[in-house]
Amino acid sequence: MKVLIVSDSHGKGKLLQQIVKRVSVDHVIHCGDFCTDRKELPKVSLTVVRGNCDWERVPEEQIWERGGLRFFVTHGHKHRVKTTPLPIRYRAEELGAKVACFGHSHFPFCEQVGNVLLINPGSISYPRGFNYPTYACLELVEGKISVTYYKTDGQKILERGGTFSI
C-alpha cells in the first residue's frame, strides 16, 4: 500500500493535481487548508479534512483504514501542533489510530511518539522553517512503514522520513 500525504496547498490546485498525477499511489490524504472548492480536488481515492482556512464543509477529523492500519487525519490547528505533538498523539490513541496525519505548521515532521507515528507532510505551497515546499509518501510493506519526503518537483529529501515498526 502506498499513500500520498499532502497539506496546506492553499489554493494551488494545479500543483496538487500535478503531484497526484506524477506519484502512483493507492490513496491520497489531504490534511486541510486546500482553500479551493471541493470539486477542484483530485478525483482519486481521497481522505480530506477541513483546515482553519477552508470554507468547504468537510469533516475536521477523519479515520481511514487500509491494510490493517488505522489513520487519524486532521489539520492540527485544534491540537496545538505548532507547540507540542502530545495532544495529537493522545487524540490518535483515543481513536485507536497508529498513524496521525496533520498539517497547519507548514513544517515537515515525522516521528514515532509512543505507539503513534506522527506525520506532517509540510506544505506544498508555502513552507515555514524549511527551505522548500514538501509532501510525503507512506508505504506499508510487511509490517514496516516507510515515509519518504519529496520536494514538489519530485526530488527526494533525504534528511526527512524514515522506516518505522508499527
From TrEMBL:
<keyword id="KW-0479">Metal-binding</keyword>
<dbReference type="GO" id="GO:0046872">
    <property type="term" value="F:metal ion binding"/>
</dbReference>
<comment type="similarity">
    <text>Belongs to the metallophosphoesterase superfamily. YfcE family.</text>
</comment>
<dbReference type="InterPro" id="IPR000979">
    <property type="entry name" value="Phosphodiesterase_MJ0936/Vps29"/>
</dbReference>
<feature type="domain" description="Calcineurin-like phosphoesterase">
    <location>
        <begin position="1"/>
        <end position="141"/>
    </location>
</feature>
<dbReference type="GO" id="GO:0016787">
    <property type="term" value="F:hydrolase activity"/>
</dbReference>
<dbReference type="InterPro" id="IPR029052">
    <property type="entry name" value="Metallo-depent_PP-like"/>
</dbReference>
<dbReference type="InterPro" id="IPR024654">
    <property type="entry name" value="Calcineurin-like_PHP_lpxH"/>
</dbReference>
<dbReference type="InterPro" id="IPR041802">
    <property type="entry name" value="MPP_YfcE"/>
</dbReference>
<dbReference type="Pfam" id="PF12850">
    <property type="entry name" value="Metallophos_2"/>
</dbReference>
<protein>
    <recommendedName>
        <fullName>Phosphoesterase</fullName>
        <ecNumber>3.1.4.-</ecNumber>
    </recommendedName>
</protein>
